[in-house]
Design goal:
- The chain is α+β, with helices and mostly antiparallel strands and 169 residues long.
- The chain has a single domain, classed as outer membrane lipoprotein receptor (LolB), chain A (Clam), CATH 2.50.20.
- 21% of the residues lie in helices and 44% in strands.
- Strands 4-3-2-1-9-8-7-6-5 form a nine-stranded antiparallel β-sheet.
- The protein is globular and about 40 Å long.
């Protein structure tokens, strides 16, 4: 897996609960708070469109009923991932708490509505240990609920819905 795909996958699954101090840099608190809010959400449906020079891929993830489900390419059946939602939280929390994944350069750059939800827009850079190239992204965080609704980077666009989500049949 390429370094961009590894970073994208780690960030796509990031639903970690950690104290704000674990990220160390001032200004990153809204992003940390968004991660915590997302982890606490009982369910979500995330769509990720990834594009690099070598590939284009659509991935959908659903967190519901304590499980995580995945569908590749936007078609076909859902696959129940071997990791539970709690296990995924633990894995990503450990990566962040250990300092292997760090956020920096966090700043609020605006505000707009995403599907009727007022959202603050934040730019940030993340660095994953062992990956030479940092990952820079823009994140839309709900002003009233601190949930992350959209993320855009050079290689992917990710949207997340929290209402009306159920586990796939």
């Amino acid at each position: 897996m390429s370094h961009i795909a590894r970073i994208a996958f780690a960030l796509t699954l990031a639903i970690a609960a950690l104290p704000a101090s674990a990220l160390a840099q001032a200004g990153c608190e809204p992003i940390t708070k968004a991660m915590n809010a997302e982890m606490s959400a009982p369910a979500w449906h995330r769509t990720v469109d990834m594009k690099t020079e070598r590939m284009a891929m659509k991935v959908e993830l659903i967190k519901a009923d304590g499980q995580v489900f995945r569908r590749m390419g936007g078609a076909g059946g859902w696959i129940k991932m071997p990791l539970t939602a709690a296990g995924l939280n633990d894995m990503n929390g450990a990566m962040l708490a250990s300092g292997k994944l760090k956020l920096s350069g966090c700043s609020r750059v605006g505000e707009e509505s995403i599907d009727g939800v007022r959202a603050g827009i934040y730019d940030y850079t993340s660095t994953l240990e062992g990956v030479a190239k940092p990952y820079t992204a823009r994140l839309w965080v709900g002003v009233g609920d601190s949930l992350p609704y959209k993320m855009v980077s050079e290689t992917q666009t990710m949207t997340t819905v929290y209402k009306g989500v159920t586990a796939p049949k």
